[in-house]
Amino acid sequence: MDIVIDGPTLVLHGAFDVRSTREVRAAIYERLDGLDRDVVLDMTDVTTIDLTALRLLAVATRHAWLTGHHLTVRNPGPAVRRMAHLARLAHALDVERAAASA
Known about the structure:
The protein has helices spanning about 20-35, 50-65, 80-85, and strands at about 1-5, 10-15, 40-50, 70-75, 95. It is α/β, with parallel strands linked by helices and about 100 residues long. Strands 1-2-3-4-5 form a 5-stranded mixed sheet. Helix 1 (about 20-35) packs parallel to helix 2. The N and C termini lie far apart (about 35 Å).
């Protein structure tokens, strides 16, 4: 898992699983707790995700909400969306809505 930090946006690349949750968690909470802004997690290039990573996202989303911030997931691919639905955690994530085309 590679994480590219671009201000309040974290761009994830690769497999988001139990091996990478510690690193991703640290990056998310550093931004949520240290900056007075919202965090966007760009998951365009995430190839797979497991239950541990989804739980991390659900807990971090709740933490953000409780502290007056937002953690938004951007561009989750089909594998990520499918796993979130199967794990019944899709409702716990704030997924960015794509702009409607004219």
